[in-house]
């Protein structure tokens, strides 16, 4: 039997939501072992002068706890 934990993180990218998601997972993988899935809970854009400057995602990351 496995026990999992879910933690929420935010990640940003100047390029796209997809890139923000990938950057967030790559960074989370440096601190969390056993990541199995992630759910994009929310997406937002930052705007400056009427232009999109940054893409932001809020992720729920699921990882398996060590025995």
Mean pLDDT: 96
State the shape. Answer: elongated
Low-confidence stretches: none
Q: Helicity, in percent?
A: 10-25%
Biggest sheet layout: 3 strands, antiparallel
Radius of gyration: 14 Å
Q: Write the element-wise H/E pattern from the N-terminal end onward.
A: EHEE
Number of strands: 3
Strand order of the largest sheet: 1-3-2
User: N-to-C terminal Cα separation, in Å?
Assistant: 10 Å
Helical run tally:
1
The fraction of residues assigned to DSSP E strands is over 45%
User: Which structural class is indicated by helix and strand composition?
Assistant: alpha+beta
Task: Give the topology.
Elements: E1 4-13, H1 17-31, E2 35-48, E3 51-64
Antiparallel strand pairs: 1-3, 2-3
Structure overview:
With 67 residues, the protein is an alpha+beta fold. It contains one helix and three strands. It has one helix at residues 17-31, and strands spanning 4-13, 35-48, 51-64. The protein has a three-stranded antiparallel beta sheet, with helices on one face.
Write a concise keyword list for the protein shown above.
alpha+beta; 3 strands; 67 residues; single chain; 1 helix
What's this model, at a glance?
The protein contains 1 helix and 3 strands. With 67 residues, it is α+β, with helices and mostly antiparallel strands. It is elongated and about 50 Å long.
């Amino acid at each position: 039997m496995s026990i999992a934990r879910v933690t929420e993180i935010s990640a940003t990218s100047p390029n796209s939501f997809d890139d923000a998601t990938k950057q967030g997972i790559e960074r989370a993988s440096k601190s969390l072992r056993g990541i199995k899935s992630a759910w994009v809970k929310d997406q937002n854009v930052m705007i400056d002068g009427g232009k999109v400057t940054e893409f932001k995602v809020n992720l729920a990351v699921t990882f398996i706890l060590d025995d």
